[in-house]
Amino acid sequence: MGSLSVSGEVATVTVEKIGGIDETTVKVPPGVTVLRGRNATNRTSFLQAVMAAHGSEWASVKGDADQGHVELSLGEETYSRTLTRTDGGVVGSGLGLLTDPTVADLFAFLLEDNEARRAVERGEDLREIIMRPVDVASIHRQIRAAEQRKEEIDEELDRIASLKRDFPDLERQRADLRDEIAETRDELQHVEERIDERDVDFQTTQENRDELETALDELQATRSELKRVRNDIQSEQESISALRDERGSLAVERSGLPESPDERLETLQSDIERLRERKRELSEYTTRLQNVIGFNEELLAGEHREITDAIDAKPESVGDITDQLYQGSKTTCWTCGSRVKPDRIESTLQSMRDHLQETVTEIDDIEDELDELTDQRDEIAETRTRAQELTATIDEVDTEIERRQTTVVDLRERRNNLSARVEELEERVTSLRTEEFDEVLELHTKANELELELDQLESERDEVSEEIADIESEIRRNDELVAQREEVVDELIDLRSRIDRLEAEATDQFNEKMDDLLDILSYGNIERIWIERTDTPDDPVHNSDDSVTGSTFTLHVVRSTDGGTVYEDTVAHLSESEREVTGLVFALAGYLVHDVYEDVPFMLLDSLEAIDSARIASLVEYFAEYPSYLVVALLPEDAQALPEKYNRITEI
């Protein structure tokens, strides 16, 4: 059933320094391979090596080595990993067959301490183990994201529906505007015709009319200019007020800065340089002192024998007869060549160490003082810089205020001149206007108003037309959004039911396979062993957080008496053999639910001694259907019950 391209390929496993294995190479053909042997024959160590080749960390390094190595050749691919012993345990490196071996460790590598296999015996949460490889938190996040997308699409569809409701009103508005535009054009045409008639009938001189029109044009332009100048004066005055407020704030900040005389800054800088020089001298001194101490410690430890031999070889360093008598308990002083007891040198060294520590402490004190003085210097420098910045900014603001005040004076003079000119022009227009000419002017004014109104109506009509075109475009998106919403709803249904499907499939697989094996293995009075899945109120499908909660898996044991009475029993009353089989079937259910066979070609079985030989043979035959390679570690007497067609390995 495996999806890997390994059908018919012989796997080669090369192992060095793993478990109890020193070095070995084992070829494993597809199908069932039986590791036959007594205990302590490296069968489990080989299984651990296979696990390590897949990327698992459940392997140990040989006791007399710091590193182990395993290599798995499968088809055209080779996977190589190194296991290194560290203080925190064994750490693996290299490229294994799996990036994440979690599902394989749980459901394919069924050694004695396999967690899924032991879950039944220990009464652990079966659902948690089955669902552990599933990133429930990620599913929650995907559900929330899909719900957000659906909400956004619904809001967009509601908006389009609202636009559809507004659409008829907009069309009526556009039609009304078209009618109003037509009426305004007719009225404008009528006014223009009257103007033409009055121009023909009006017998004023062309010179008078030209002069009046010129005066009116100048009056209008002068009034516009006067209005603009008044606005400019107001704007400049507001700017001056804002600048004065800014200057006040800057002045307050500057006055609040502490005094920072140059003498204090110079003193601090001098102290800093003096302490830095002292620190440098002490650092060099401690380095030399450390070298002397280290060299003497090495001499006391027996290193640098060439130096002590050279000193001992000089006649003048022999010393007196008493020193020679006690030579075995003394050592040579490399500075003077005399023989002294090691304790005296050690005492001197300790004094030097104490002095070294005092010097290091002095350096630490200097560093603390340096930090404090540097902070003070930097603070004063920052204050001086800020004061300079504030002074410069205040000067700039003063300059700007002065410039704007000058501008205001000029503008006020300009305003006074324009006001006087307006009065002159108004008097001039009054002297030139006649009753007949006023009527013509009113017609021209009316024509101008109608033209302006016509422009506004046409602009409003264009805006409504654009809005109608936008709505038509949005309405055309409706079908696309409906299709997107259906896709999101389908995605939500899939996400919300994914956990439920996995749980249901897990219980179904367990119950089906358990029924099969109970029938095959014929366990006495056991009628059925099955898992009941019950929903709980805090089903994760409907949770808004990332907690991994959901249904409850309850394992039931149903027995029958010799008289045919059926009753509920407990897992605790199962025999060791029955519990082992139940644990293995539970692991198999996880193996099938998570499609482990698609990525993991090997299934490993170990520690089956609690099951009798005949049942082991049936169990192996049943499990052999699923993986490409099923490797089983068995005792010799149990291996005899398996068919001869299975590959056997007796030495590792």
List keywords for this structure.
five-stranded antiparallel β-sheet; five-stranded parallel β-sheet; 15 strands; Chromosome segregation protein SMC; coiled coil; P-loop_NTPase
Please, could you describe this protein's structure?
With 652 residues, this protein is α/β, with parallel strands linked by helices. Helix content is 63%, strand content 13%. It is built from 15 helices and 15 strands. Strands 2-1-4-5-6 form a five-stranded antiparallel sheet, covered by helices on one side. A five-stranded parallel sheet has the order 7-13-14-3-15. A hairpin with a 2-residue loop joins strand 1 (11-18) and strand 2. Helix 12 (478-521) packs antiparallel against helix 13. The longest helix has 91 residues, at 342-432.
Low-confidence stretches: 1-5, 200-204, 315-329, 537-548
Beta percentage is 5-15%
Main beta sheet strand tally, sense and closure: 5 strands, antiparallel
Number of helical segments with 4 or more residues? 15
Assembly category: single chain
* Cα end-to-end separation: 28 Å
The coarse overall form would be: flat
Derived from helix and strand composition plus strand pairing, the structural class reads alpha/beta
The whole-angstrom Rg is 50 Å
Biggest sheet, spatial arrangement of strands? 2-1-4-5-6
InterPro entries: P-loop_NTPase
Protein name: Chromosome segregation protein SMC
Keywords: Coiled coil
Organism: Haloarcula argentinensis
